């Protein structure tokens, strides 16, 4: 059973869409039978909004799913109505980013490439505060920092996420928040790279061109095979989740190539220590 209500909502959405298609029903027909609008059913099937357990039961009856299979899906729907910790930060987290955090909280593996900044999961408090100050201003900054630090629990839980990070070398050279902040951030990266579930690699300038130029990404996979992998892309005003198998495969291949082009973990640690001397 998945723990994140976001992942549960996504599971229900996928199952209902597949069941409707197997039943040979269009969105129009199914929506009329369920006494809801076509747009609402479409949003449910795309995990944009949730669905109540009683409505899941009605949909399963329509699609002729009964017994243990039906009860298992209804139980997942109940779990999808629970609140994730991140929802208490909804005053400072955009809805589209809450969706990502809900996926991140349940992920078994995260593979990411960053061009400009240290990934949020690896940021120190002072570095995170400066990033928010530069990109979003002072409004709600302490709440945003607190939420970011809370996210980092996925690295230290009893069943921590497996994290593979490739950092553009520019991240190590760009002073964010001054020398003291950067010195602390470099030391933190060196320390956290020693965790058994974290692999940190630096993509050096000498690697030249590569397949992810100007294209940061996160590829998330989940321990339950019923929860499909997803690619997450983000800019200043929105996030985008890509779920097509070909899209996920493409980004996974890119990450494998970046890992081959990047310095190995030991050489990357050496590069981190070299960079830290510039901020001593």
Properties at a glance:
alpha/beta, 434 Repressor (Amino-terminal Domain), Endonuclease, Chain A, 12 helices, elongated
Q: What does it look like?
A:
- InterPro entries: Cro/C1-type_HTH (IPR001387), DUF5753 (IPR043917), Lambda_DNA-bd_dom_sf (IPR010982).
- There is one protein chain.
- By secondary structure, this protein is of the alpha/beta class.
- It folds into 2 domains: 5-80, lambda repressor-like DNA-binding domains (434 Repressor (Amino-terminal Domain)), CATH 1.10.260.40; 85-277, Endonuclease, Chain A.
- The chain contains 12 helices and 6 strands.
- The chain has helices at 5-22, 27-33, 38-45, 53-62, 67-80, 95-104, 125-136, 141-151, 170-173, 179-192, 245-261, 265-277, and strands at 109-114, 162-168, 198-203, 217-221, 230-234, 239-242.
- Strand 5 (230-234) and strand 6 form a beta hairpin.
- The longest helix has 18 residues, at 5-22.
- The chain is elongated and about 65 Å long.
Largest sheet: 6 strands, mixed
**Which spans of ≥5 residues are poorly predicted at pLDDT below 50?**
none
Strand content: 5-15%
Rg, rounded, reads 21 Å
Order of helices and strands: HHHHHHEHHEHHEEEEHH
What's the multimeric state?
single chain
**What fold name stands as the CATH topology of the largest domain?**
Endonuclease, Chain A
Summarize the model shown.
Residues 16-70 form the HTH cro/C1-type domain. With 280 residues, the protein is α/β, with parallel strands linked by helices.
């Amino acid at each position: 059973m998945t723990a994140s209500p976001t992942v549960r909502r996504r599971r229900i959405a996928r199952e209902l869409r597949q069941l409707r298609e197997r039943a040979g029903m269009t969105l129009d027909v199914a929506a009329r039978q369920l006494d809801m609008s076509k747009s609402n059913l479409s949003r449910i099937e795309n995990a944009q909004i949730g669905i109540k357990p009683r409505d899941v039961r009605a949909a399963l009856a329509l699609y002729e799913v009964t017994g243990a299979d039906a009860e298992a899906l209804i139980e997942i729907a109940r779990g999808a109505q629970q609140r994730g910790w991140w929802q208490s930060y909804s005053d400072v987290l955009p809805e589209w980013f809450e969706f990502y955090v809900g996926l991140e909280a349940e992920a078994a593996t995260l593979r990411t490439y960053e061009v400009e900044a240290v990934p949020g999961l690896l940021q120190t408090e002072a570095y995170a505060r400066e990033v928010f100050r530069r990109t979003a201003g002072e409004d709600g900054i302490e709440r945003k920092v607190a939420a970011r630090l809370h996210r980092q629990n996925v690295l230290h839980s009893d069943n921590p996420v497996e994290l593979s990070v490739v950092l553009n070398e520019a991240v190590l050279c760009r002073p964010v928040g001054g020398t003291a902040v950067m010195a602390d951030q470099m030391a933190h990266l060196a320390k956290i790279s020693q965790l058994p579930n974290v692999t940190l690699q630096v993509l050096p300038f000498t690697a030249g061109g590569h397949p992810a130029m100007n294209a940061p990404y996160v590829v998330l996979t989940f321990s339950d095979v019923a929860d499909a992998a997803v690619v997450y892309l983000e800019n200043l005003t929105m996030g985008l989740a890509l779920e097509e198998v070909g899209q996920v495969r493409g980004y996974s291949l890119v990450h494998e190539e970046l890992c081959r082009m990047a310095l190995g973990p030991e050489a990357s640690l050496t590069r981190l220590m070299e960079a830290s001397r510039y901020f001593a």
